[in-house]
Specification:
By secondary structure, this protein is an alpha/beta fold. The chain has two domains: about 15-275, ANL, N-terminal domain (Rossmann fold, 3-Layer(aba) Sandwich); about 285-325, no CATH class. The protein has twelve helices and eleven strands. The protein has helices spanning about 15-25, 45-65, 80-90, 105-115, 125-135, 165-175, 180-185, 215-225, 245-255, 270-275, 285-300, 305-325; strands at about 30-40, 40-45, 70-75, 95-100, 120, 145, 160, 195-200, 210, 235, 260-265. Helix 1 crosses helix 2 and helix 2 (about 45-65) crosses helix 6. The radius of gyration is 21 Å and the shape is globular.
Length: about 325
């Protein structure tokens, strides 16, 4: 496909999410941006490597015919490929839409129809099966891209392809048009839509909310001002990336502050992976904290009297210190 002509008015590219990624890759190319645990071993991606993969995926989308304003759905567990797909779509002006990985087929079909999605990035066989089940209801859905190939051997469907295949398309496109990615990147404005998020659906069926780059980065700036983060700090991304809270921290704040985002190996290993990483910052719903406190209290009650006393003393001092800190 030939590169399309877009409005290339120069905004401030560092005030967009992919623009911040490009700046991080330039300023700290060898610093670890992402870390994913596979088979018990942490696999690292630097800021330069992160940008390279985003560029490859973005240009792969261009080669497939994805245009500015097209909707790109993403569903699956938290993995580097999720944020690569999201930032790749944003880099060419497409609109990523995150979907919860536990969505049933009917919910998935409703959101894909509402967004008129042209392509979906689905993690694995389970998610691909759900998409194939409802594909007839989404006539505009041309491509299904998976990033976990386990169980996918023998699957045949129009537009079904691997994440690596899209990246390979992008690499070849980039060889032919070496300046296309940068040209598109600088054309993105802070006020452009960066993300489509689903509403909670507590009062009616979920709807799509449009969030701009400026909106997401304003939230990130407030977050970082309250709890300062910096390059070298660690964060564990385990809450759904379809949720705006995780987007605010695991994507926008990470790009703004430059800290490392870690992805657990499995849902069941989250607690162990958090202990191993020792993140500088965590954000979780109350239930997560309640479970952690309950586990600690049970262990404290099962130990010796001296250790119970030390635990209770430490808790009192910790609460007093926290209250003093909040009061300034």
């Amino acid at each position: 496909m030939q590169p399309t002509q877009r409005n290339t008015r120069a905004g401030n590219p560092t005030h967009t999410l992919p623009g911040l990624l490009a700046r991080r890759a330039k300023d700290r190319p060898d610093q670890v941006a992402l870390r994913e645990k596979e088979f018990g071993i942490w696999q690292e991606t630097t800021w330069a490597g992160f940008l390279d993969r985003v560029r490859s995926f973005a240009l792969g989308l261009v080669e497939l015919g994805v245009e500015q304003g097209d909707r790109i759905a993403i569903i699956g567990d938290n993995r580097p490929e999720w944020v690569i797909a999201e930032l790749g779509a944003q880099s060419i002006g497409a609109l990523p839409l995150g979907l919860y990985q536990d969505s049933i087929s009917a919910e998935l079909a409703r959101m894909l129809e509402a967004a008129d999605a042209r392509l979906i990035v689905a993690e694995d066989q389970e998610q691909v099966d759900k998409v194939l089940e409802v594909r007839d209801r989404v006539p505009g859905l041309e491509y299904i891209v998976y990033y976990d190939p386990r169980g996918m051997y023998g699957y045949k469907a129009p537009g079904l392809m691997s994440f690596e295949a899209v990246e390979a398309l992008g690499d070849r496109f980039g060889d032919r048009f070496p300046h296309e990615f940068d040209r598109r990147l600088v054309a993105i404005e802070p006020g452009d839509i960066a993300l489509l998020c689903t509403t909670s659906g507590t009062t009616s069926v979920p709807k799509l909310a449009m969030l701009s780059h400026a909106n997401l980065l304003a939230m990130a700036e407030q977050m970082v001002s309250v709890d300062p983060m910096e390059p070298g700090d660690e964060f564990v991304s385990f809450l759904p990336l379809a949720w705006i809270g995780e987007q605010m921290v695991g994507v926008a704040s990470a790009l703004l502050a430059g800290f490392t985002v870690n992805f657990p190996e499995e849902t069941g290993t989250v607690r162990a992976d958090i202990r191993e990483i020792g993140p500088a910052f965590m954000m979780s719903p109350p239930r997560i904290w309640e479970n952690m406190v309950s586990d600690v209290q049970v262990m404290a009650e099962d130990t010796t009297p001296l250790k119970r006393w030390m635990y209770r003393w430490a808790m009192r001092e910790g609460v007093r210190a926290a209250e003093a800190r909040f009061e300034g």
